[in-house]
Amino acid sequence: MITFRTATLTDVDALNLLVNSAYRGDSSKKGWTTEADLLGGQRTDAEKIKEMIQDPFSRIELAMENDQILGCVYLKQENEALYFGMLTVNPDLQAKGIGKLLINHLESVAHHLKCHTIRMTVISVRTELIAFYERRGYKFTGKTEPFPENDPRFGLPKTKLLFHEFAKKLV
Fold it and tell me: What is the pLDDT, as a whole number, of residue 40?
């Protein structure tokens, strides 16, 4: 049975390993969320994860089963909106519905926080991922922003990249 909990500082190393294994390198190619062909380097680092956990307006929610972290998602409250990013599922467990459960959970958190909108940014060329979010009611807002090309904490682009913002209004 999958349960959810908020990450603590004791989870930093496990989260760093999980996120980087799902987004970068050969291990990420086991799953469908890999960015290894678009970006080199790391997806995040322990220091950034620690900052996320310690920020009073953000948190990382974990999908757990038998004390094992299956996936995670970063949430940041922005007034009446909830931003989410770093939606991650262990590459060996992808395509089993864990990502959908994490989205359902983050939407529940948004309702609890009285947020009216959930937003995120996605690399514009991640068409399969964009389709995944669109099937869940997220729509392109028309807003774009450049990918941070000179910040190795997010990875090293192999080509010019752009973020597209997607949002979903809650009822």
Answer: 74
Q: Work out the burial of residue 160: count CB atoms within 10 Å of its CB; fewer than 13 is exposed, 13-18 middle, 19 or more buried.
A: exposed
Q: Can you tell me the distance from the alpha carbon of 103 to that of 4, in angstroms, rounded to the nearest whole number? A: 12
CA dihedral for 41, 42, 47, 48, sign (positive or negative): positive
User: pLDDT exceeding 90 applies to what percent of the chain?
Assistant: 70
pTM of the model: 0.91
Length of the chain: 171
Give, in order, the Cα–Cα distances in Å from 20 to each of 44, 75, 107, 159.
Answer: 7, 18, 24, 20
Residue closest to 103 by CA, chosen among 78, 138, 51: 138
